[in-house]
Design brief:
mainly alpha, two-stranded antiparallel ribbon, 13 helices, 6 strands
Length: 320
């Protein structure tokens, strides 16, 4: 058991400094099957497997959550970096022809920018009615846990919920300015920040609240998991970077903007307009993270302004 968990941790650690970037505009005209049930099954099976393996060990709920995070982060890493891992989960690019097209036409394609020759090809998946990159799953389970630990520290010293949320989101912001964003890829992703925060909510649900997902059986003192994880409780259009635009450094934006402009005709298509209307009418309100980030944007603090990077703005400037 101990060796197995150590192996999980050792395998996960390399992923912290490596991130794929996903061109979700590339996937606009590519069909995708909704993979919510497949992803939910993978997550619930992984958590259940960790809980069973722990057995009767005298672990705190937080310690068990940490082990769960290691296993889930490894699964997220495999989805992001291992070719066609869990091939029942639909994704774009998937086929060899799509990967070749991605190289030619995506702003993360290796034929577009030399640096991208050493970057993994980020893939887009459809779940909970939203298209997003596999990197968001890694943000959710991995960066989300580290953000949750900031949240938890504030709560445990009797801080307010608002203070705890700000601490968690501030941590995510710091990673986007540094090794998970601007430093590594020249991109500051607001979609990443939302996935990070939803990860905070997930890890909080394991041990906190009126009905925590992890409980100890009074009969045999074993941990139990209720098997209730569902991406639909966490995913929103804010995970879709073609809808919730990222900010790019100057060098990357020069060619990224040109490639986005080539897809302006798709923006006007019935399919994309329908998708964006559905996103705008999403049933859940903005998250606490989004509300806090919006306040930072109004104050001109901590985060860059994404206004000029939206596809609508880019297409307005397009030269006919």
């Amino acid at each position: 058991m101990g060796l197995r968990l150590c192996a999980w941790l050792c395998l996960v650690l390399p992923s912290f400094g490596i991130a794929s970037e996903t061109d979700q505009y590339f996937a606009w005209d590519k069909p995708l099957k909704d993979s919510t049930s497949e992803l939910n099954a993978l997550v619930n099976q992984t958590i259940s497997g960790v809980v069973r393996a722990v057995g009767e060990q005298n672990l705190s709920c937080h310690s068990l959550s940490s082990l769960i995070r290691a296993a889930l982060a490894l699964e997220g890493w495999k989805l992001e970096f291992v070719s066609n891992y869990h091939s029942e989960i639909d994704r774009v690019p998937f086929s060899e022809s799509q990967k070749e097209e991605f190289d030619r036409e995506s702003f993360y394609g290796s034929e577009v920018d030399f640096k991208n020759r050493v970057m993994p090809k980020g893939q887009t998946v459809l779940a909970a009615g939203v298209r997003f990159g596999f990197d968001k799953i890694q943000h959710f389970f991995s960066t989300g846990f580290r953000a949750y630990e900031r949240y938890r520290e504030v709560i445990e010293r009797q801080g307010t919920e608002e203070e705890a949320v700000k601490a968690a989101v501030d941590y995510g912001i710091s990673t986007e300015w540094r090794y998970l964003g601007m430093w590594s890829s020249g991109v500051f992703s607001f979609g990443d920040l939302e996935a990070d925060y939803q990860g905070v909510r997930f890890y909080s649900s394991l041990c906190r609240g009126e009905k925590p997902r992890l409980t100890k059986s009074k009969a045999d003192n074993r941990w139990q998991y209720d098997g209730s994880f569902d991406f639909r409780d966490y995913v929103s259009p804010a995970w879709d970077e073609s809808y919730n635009p990222s900010v790019y450094n100057h060098r990357r934006w020069v060619f990224t903007k040109k490639i986005i402009q080539k897809r302006c005709n798709l923006l006007r298509s019935n399919e994309i307009q329908s998708q964006r209307d559905r996103y705008r009418n999403w049933s859940t309100p903005p998250s606490a993270s989004m509300v806090y980030i919006e306040s930072l944007l109004k104050q001109g603090e901590k985060v860059p302004d994404p206004t000029l990077y939206s596809v609508e703005k880019v297409c307005e400037e397009r030269i006919p």
